[in-house]
Amino acid sequence: xxxxxxxxxxxxxxxxxxxxxxxxxxxxxxxxxxxxxxxxxxxxxxxxxxxxxxxxxxxxxxxxxxxxxxxxxxxxxxxxxxxxxxxxxxxxxxxxxxxxxxxxxxxxxxxxxxxxxxxxxxxxxxxxxxxxxxxxxxxxxxxxxxxxxxxxxxxxxxxxxxxxxxxxxxxxxxxxxxxxxxxxxxxxxxxxxxxxxxxxxxxxxxxxxxxxxxxxxxxxxxxxxxxxxxxxxxxxxxxxxxxxxxxxxxxxxxxxxxxxxxxxxxxxxxxxxxxxxxxxxxxxxxxxxxxxxxxxxxxxxxxxxxxxxxxxxxxxxxxxxxxxxxxxxxxxxxxxxxxxxxxxxxxxxxxxxxxxxxxxxxxxxxxxxx
Length: 370
Ligand code: FAD
What we know:
By secondary structure, this protein is an alpha/beta fold. The protein has eight helices and 26 strands. Strand 2, helix 2 and strand 3 form a beta-alpha-beta unit. The chain binds flavin-adenine dinucleotide. Flavin-adenine dinucleotide binds next to helix 1, strand 2, helix 7 and strand 22.
């Protein structure tokens, strides 16, 4: 393998390039990125950066030299997997190995602002500097973090969520209620269980006829994998799950792997493909897929993990929860906003959630991995 092209020059793509070098790959390495920026970190965008703090966002270590070529601000527009040709608007690259790492984009909703890129965050930060109020559609991680940061900046905040509680999908309704309590503690108005019909620049129309006005409107309704350019590539791709892969990032086509938010890896424990949109998984998948590409033994996969910082508290979750799992609070209490809960399936622990319990969470996370 003498030429590897990595498409998507962000967290997963950069981590894959780094892993290839660490595993001894010494051929050509080319990163192609749609954004004009070198790899940067997204989690601070809804937290410290949006709060107005000065934050180091670069993912590259100052001493790091991957001996790579970077083509930035130029999206790949087509791919032929069998031939391993990556097409840009003005040229075509042929590679021996290709890493697909194009991540996701925020699902748009009407005229609402979205938060996925550094440019989105910069624009939202500027809007917050003069705004007095914000309404956020969606109480998922991004919506909840934007709400928390906006409150810390003194804005009046309303969050509208169609499900009965925030994060009802990943955490279940009971634990979602704990997160709802956190919003209430900090003076955020949370409207749950009502859909949104229209999103305008300074107002949101709810399905029950109510209108909520604000200086800024943010849509935080999830993301879609950035795989439109892969239709017709010969890979199995769908617009909700992304690129279908085996459990080590292989796409079924030799020399082509996919990692991070654009990929749906097969999870043998769930017996289906899953797209995991978490920072830690992007790095872990990159290391596994780099070994796959080089024909080396991949390191073992760990259960998915994410963290979220809201209202000064750290929320952490590891594993896969199903609505039918039994959830018990093992330590602390929801009322104190400091607890650790375990999700059991057939009496076996399958997931763990913690609010403000970093140490115990780390121990449980290790237990889930064994
Ligand atoms: P991305 O980071 O989306 O990078 C993909 C890159 O590919 C982008 O630069 C994109 O422009 C580029 N690209 C797209 N299409 C093309 C193309 N056709 N050609 C070339 N390049 C292309 N996770 C957590 O676990 N905890 C958190 O607290 C947390 N906070 C977050 C806060 C925000 C605001 C966001 C947006 C995400 C957060 N995440 C968090 C999720 C985490 O950042 C993502 O899972 C991670 O960024 C995924 O990395 P990726 O490289 O797969 O995708």
